[in-house]
UniProtKB/TrEMBL annotation:
<keyword id="KW-0813">Transport</keyword>
<feature type="transmembrane region" description="Helical">
    <location>
        <begin position="202"/>
        <end position="221"/>
    </location>
</feature>
<keyword id="KW-0472">Membrane</keyword>
<feature type="transmembrane region" description="Helical">
    <location>
        <begin position="166"/>
        <end position="190"/>
    </location>
</feature>
<dbReference type="GO" id="GO:0055056">
    <property type="term" value="F:D-glucose transmembrane transporter activity"/>
</dbReference>
<dbReference type="InterPro" id="IPR005964">
    <property type="entry name" value="Glc/Gal_transptr_bac"/>
</dbReference>
<protein>
    <submittedName>
        <fullName>Glucose/galactose MFS transporter</fullName>
    </submittedName>
</protein>
<keyword id="KW-1003">Cell membrane</keyword>
<feature type="transmembrane region" description="Helical">
    <location>
        <begin position="76"/>
        <end position="97"/>
    </location>
</feature>
<keyword id="KW-1133">Transmembrane helix</keyword>
<feature type="transmembrane region" description="Helical">
    <location>
        <begin position="32"/>
        <end position="51"/>
    </location>
</feature>
<feature type="transmembrane region" description="Helical">
    <location>
        <begin position="227"/>
        <end position="246"/>
    </location>
</feature>
<dbReference type="GO" id="GO:0005886">
    <property type="term" value="C:plasma membrane"/>
</dbReference>
<dbReference type="GO" id="GO:0005354">
    <property type="term" value="F:galactose transmembrane transporter activity"/>
</dbReference>
<feature type="transmembrane region" description="Helical">
    <location>
        <begin position="143"/>
        <end position="160"/>
    </location>
</feature>
<keyword id="KW-0997">Cell inner membrane</keyword>
<keyword id="KW-0812">Transmembrane</keyword>
Amino acid sequence: GTTVAPFFGSYLIFGASGEHNSATASASDVQIPYLILATALLLLALIFLYLKLPKLNHTNANTKVFSGGAWQHRHLVLGALGIFMYVGAEVSIGSMLVNYLANPDVAGLSEGKASKLLAYFWGGAMVGRFIGALVMQKISGGKVLAFNGTMAIALIFVSISSTGSVALWAMLGVGLFNSIMFPTIFSLALQKLGKHTPQGSGILCLAIVGGAIVPLLQGVLADSVGVTLSFILPALCYVYIAYYGLIGCRVTELKTTKEV
């Protein structure tokens, strides 16, 4: 969906030419895409309203789990922060990408053309997911996560320190390495939680609030130092993700009790 939607959104907002006349721009330019999105979400809500979901039972009398609540597990808490950082970085880049590529010092594209290139950013994540699934059959998830985080950092710094096609494709390439981050962090954070797994899952889901906070912070930073340098913020998020893959995901042994 994130690969195809930019093409439709660009067409609906900017038209077939991909050009946007700021003199005639108004709120009506984006009404149709948002009305379509609202309708789709309403239909989805109705489906889940009447859909009977199975009740999951994690109880196993022979399973030993850590005592205490889910918050006592260091790797879970650090994983929640990892989800916060990942979603924040991904949404920040996706949100600022059009402005970044429209910058004359970067690619100088029109907003319409730049918006279509969003599909490559999100499409890279789709392709990388398949590649990552194959790679992680041979290499541990933590190492792959650390590698992808490091590559994302490198691509961001290559992009913001260059111009033209190099800057454009380096930033779009970050999407490829975003691919396995969310499911990998999620899985690593839920290791050995036993009966606390549902609570841990809820904590991780709440951490996606990073997608609302980090883009806001990058916007403030962009107003202060410029759009290009503001990408240092998502780069710092990827630094943490690389740390989590190497060190933070390690399970700290706590006192165990037999699950009842």
